[in-house]
Amino acid sequence: MGNHKSEIRRRNVDKILLAAEQVFAEKGYAGTAMADIAEQAGLPRSNLHYYFNTKDDLYRAVLLGLLEVWKQDALCFEMYDDPRVVLSSYIRAKMNHSRSRAHGSKVWADEIIHGAPMLGASLDDSLYNWAKMKEAKIRQWVDDKRILAVEPSALLYMIWASTQHYADFSHQVAILNDHQALSDMQFERALQTVTGVILRGIGLEP
Known about the structure:
- By secondary structure, this protein is mostly helical.
- The protein contains 11 helices and no strands.
- The protein folds into 2 domains: 1-53, Arc Repressor Mutant, subunit A (Orthogonal Bundle), CATH 1.10.10.60; 66-201, Orthogonal Bundle (Tetracycline Repressor, domain 2), CATH 1.10.357.10.
- The longest helix is centred in the N-terminal third of the chain and has 30 residues, at 2-31.
- It is globular, with a radius of gyration of 19 Å.
- Keywords: DNA-binding.
């Protein structure tokens, strides 16, 4: 019985968070009401308040959930040692989430552009050490002459910018693609291009 209730709770929370991503992305934090999110989720407004007391709580949960998704994307840094495998896997994961979680990426970008007013100092705790560990691995590849000399943080920023472009500027991408979203084939070509340019830039063949 307890497991069944836990499963219902998990499904409802996931549904609310995904709905909130879309509404926050489309209307912005200030322009979003809890009623908008409830409507998007297909749930009574009272259900939202059962799981999240305030809009601030829900917005913060969306942001922290996104950060966890992106940390999962980077698990390849811990699972593998080959820079080609690690970076190819990371870029693919980031690109795929830019496609499947485009609204979330826009919410995150808006929070960071405005100086992380909701996350505040907690962003340092969540992001700083995580990023420094990734930089340390890249620096080790450089020291071992497995890749060309590169500033590790700049390489990470380049990957983030290139992959999240397809989420944060999806409207622009569609306009330049004859007002259509990229097809599966076009998206795969874009992914291969981003991967190839970055790998070749550090002396690796895709």
